[in-house]
Structures are given as C-alpha cells and as structure tokens.
Amino acid sequence: MVEHVSDLAWPEVGARAEKGVILAVPVGSTEQHGPHLPLSTDTDIAVEMCRRLAARRPDVLVAPAIPYGSSGEHAGFPGTLSIGQAALELLIVELCRSATDTFDRIVLVNGHGGNAEPLQRAVRLLREESRDVRLWVTRYHGDLHAGRSETGMQLALDPLRVRPELAEPGDQRPISEIFPLLAAGGVRAVSPNGVLGDPTPATPEEGARLLAELARHLENDSRSWWPVEQQSDTDRAGQ
C-alpha cells in the first residue's frame, strides 16, 4: 500500500515517523514538452517513481510533489512556469530543514534535468548540517526532451493526456553539437516545437519498460543508502 503524507493526520504521521520512515519528495517542473505532452510530464514521472518506491518499501511515505523547477531553458513557450535555480535551491533547503523535524531520512526524486545543479547544492548544504538527505535523478539513454523516451513513459502513465496526432520530430542533433546554442538561447533557439528528438516511434510498452527500469534503479539506490532492515531505536527497544 502506498501512503501519501498529505492523506494522514499529524498523529498518524508521528507514529509512522517513530518507525523510521523515509520521506520521498517528487521534484518536477511545469514546462513545455512539445505540442503533444502535458506540461506536467517531468512531475508525473517523479511522482510515479516515488509511488513505485513506496509500493516496494513499506518504510516510505510520499510527499506532495514540487511542480515548479528551474526551467529557464524553456522560456518563450506558453505555459512554462520556472522559479529559477536560486529559488529552487532555497525552497529545497527550507523544506528539508522543516521535514527533518519529523523525518530522519529524505530522498528527493528529481524528474527534470534542469533542477540537478540547484538540488545538488541544496543537498550538499543540508548534509553539511548533518541532515540525511539524498538526491536521485532520473537518467536514461534516449532523446533529450519530449522525444521517444518521455513520450513512451507518459503513454504508459496516462495515454489520455498524450496527443499522438500532434507528435512530430524536433531537433535531433547530439547534445554536444547543440549545447552552445541551448546555453545561449534555450530550446527555442534550436527547436521551434520544443522537442529534442523524435517522439513518433514511442509506444506505451516501451515506456512501461523504461519506467520499470528506472524504478528498479531507484529502489536499488535506496537500499544502498538505507537497508530495509534498518530500524529505529524505538523499534529495537520494543522488541
């Protein structure tokens, strides 16, 4: 059973926290994903990763998603809502400082590549403060943005929110070739439709396999950080 912290009352959260649960925080974005995918795609994938982790580990609670990130590279496309690197870093630091009043262990599950640097800085500071906060970033081989991989995953998650009739290839050059243009002018400078790759071959079956692979990686990493057998002092005292 997957438990969401926002569904519980404070005594229930306190009781779960006493048993040493991990708080999994999905961190995503609200940004353009081509003409065929919803703006919430990165957030949707991060939420699904947290949900699957909680389904595999009874010691995980899922936090409400953070749907805004550092998405300045997608400026110029209607609907993109970016809070920038500094604001995201501060948000994560203050959120985790608050969360560690209750939870001993926190994993930030990031679904948007543009969030990586501010999240890394935030986690570095939090760990210097002796807070057990970890960062996990979705990584996979495939198109850079709104291409085959993300389209397949969204098809597997919620096909009714995908518009396959609008899917079309974008810029398909390797990142090494387009990076200077991206850095200078964002995605608009290289791809008028906002796609980096080709979403047209995407299938829900391929997306489901990729989601399962990512979920396995997250679970394995979480076990290397925090073995499932780990128990709180309260649990051990009660045995």
Please describe what this structure looks like.
This protein is of the alpha/beta class and 239 residues long. The protein has one domain: Creatininase (Rossmann fold, 3-Layer(aba) Sandwich), CATH 3.40.50.10310. 43% of the residues lie in helices and 10% in strands. It is built from eight helices and five strands. The longest helix has 22 residues. The radius of gyration is 19 Å and the shape is globular. The chain starts with a strand and ends with a helix. The C terminus is likely disordered.
Key features?
single chain, 239 residues, alpha/beta, Rossmann fold, 5-stranded parallel beta sheet, 5 strands, 43% helix
Write the layout of secondary structure elements.
Layout: E1 3-4, H1 10-18, E2 22-27, H2 41-56, E3 60-62, H3 84-99, E4 105-110, H4 116-128, E5 132-137, H5 148-157, H6 175-185, H7 204-225, H8 233-237
Helix pairs in contact: 2-5, 2-7, 3-4, 5-7
Structure summary:
The chain has 239 residues and is of the alpha/beta class. Mean pLDDT is 94; it is low at 230-239.
Largest β-sheet summary? 5 strands, parallel
Beta percentage is 5-15%
- The string of secondary-structure elements, in order, is EHEHEHEHEHHHH
Helix share of residues?
40-55%
β-strand number: 5
What's the mean pLDDT score? 94
Oligomer: single chain
Low-confidence stretches: 230-239
Shape: globular
